[in-house]
Design goal:
Helix content: 40-55%
Strand content: 15-25%
CATH class: Alpha Beta
Largest sheet: 7 strands, parallel
CATH superfamily: NAD(P)-binding Rossmann-like Domain
Radius of gyration: 18 Å
Number of domains: 1
Distance between the termini: 64 Å
Structural class: alpha/beta
Bound molecules: NADPH dihydro-nicotinamide-adenine-dinucleotide phosphate, 2-hydroxyethylsulfonic acid
């Protein structure tokens, strides 16, 4: 196998599982994230010929350009891009939210994702590659306190569909994967490290696990080249829909 995948947010959760899935399937993997100490074990396990760790803050445009420019020769031909790095911060309603947290979510989930996609499009087009964007059910279903997080994911979904149109005829595939409740470090990050809140959310719910999403990413990225999954919404069986809220005077 002489294919290379570039995965953002490879230090944790979905991204770490996706990196392991593709490395085990003999892909070369570029795994990114801010925490170098989380990427090093992956390099040690699979070898530096299989995994390249690119440590940078995805919001830092210069650092992103430098990381791409510094890719070793054998990792430069990117066949698949997984835009996975992202986060939710806070659960307060808009009127009590923290504007700095809103900016961080937009910078990470929207601006950085668009900039990285733009930077890697030439090689993805040249190699008739695949783009897999990790959106969320929050893109489609609003919930109290989801405000800017849900809006950033609506961008991810719509950007994916727009890319499909723009890339018409290039052979590049684009997929928006939209997971529901999944146990990763997501809630720990969202609650600024509240372990009991995170444990309570997932307890007894049999949530999605990171390997489930890694399997989904692998499936959409390795389909026969004439097929494109546009959107893939995935929930645990334990999660479904509830009604609208009504305020009464
Ligand atoms: P984790 O918190 O476990 O992983 C998030 C990843 O994003 C980490 O590797 C982190 O790396 C990276 N990241 C965050 N900010 C930055 C940054 N500024 N620069 C570089 N990397 C960054 O959560 P998940 O695995 O759950 O999240 C992955 C994606 O899945 C996100 O886009 C999330 O919105 C989405 N998602 C999650 C769901 C869930 O319920 N868990 C459901 C639906 C979608 P580091 O901190 O080392 O920089
Ligand atoms: C994560 C899923 O429902 O917590 O994107 O927003 S949700």
């Amino acid at each position: 196998m002489d294919k290379t995948i570039f995965i953002t947010g490879g230090t944790s959760g979905f991204g770490a599982a996706i990196a392991r899935k593709f490395a085990a399937a003999d892909w070369k993997v570029v795994a990114t994230g801010r925490r170098a100490e989380r990427l090093q074990p992956l390099v040690e396990e699979f070898g530096a010929d299989r995994i390249h760790a690119a440590v940078f803050d995805i919001r830092d445009a210069d650092a992103m350009s430098q990381a791409i420019a510094a890719l070793p020769e054998k990792f430069r031909g990117i066949d698949a891009l997984v835009n996975n790095a992202g986060l939710a911060l806070g659960t307060a309603p808009a009127q009590r939210a923290d504007l700095a947290q809103w900016r961080q979510m937009i910078d990470t989930n929207v601006t950085a994702l668009a900039a990285l996609t733009y930077a890697l499009l030439p090689t993805l087009i040249e190699r008739k590659g695949a783009i897999v964007n990790i959106s969320s059910i929050a893109a489609t279903y609003p919930y109290t306190g989801g405000n800017v997080y849900g809006a950033t994911k609506a961008f991810v979904t719509q950007f994916s569909l727009g890319l499909r149109s723009d890339l018409h005829g290039t052979g590049v595939r684009v997929t928006s994967i939209e997971p529901g409740l999944a146990e990763t470090e997501f809630t720990l990050v969202r609650t600024s490290g509240d372990r009991s809140a995170s444990d309570k959310l997932y307890e007894g719910a049999q949530p999605i696990v990171a390997e489930d999403i890694a399997d989904a990413v692998h499936w959409v990225a390795t389909l026969p080249p004439h097929l494109n999954v546009n959107r893939l919404e995935v929930m645990p069986v334990s999660q479904s829909f509830a009604g609208f809220q009504i305020h009464r005077d």
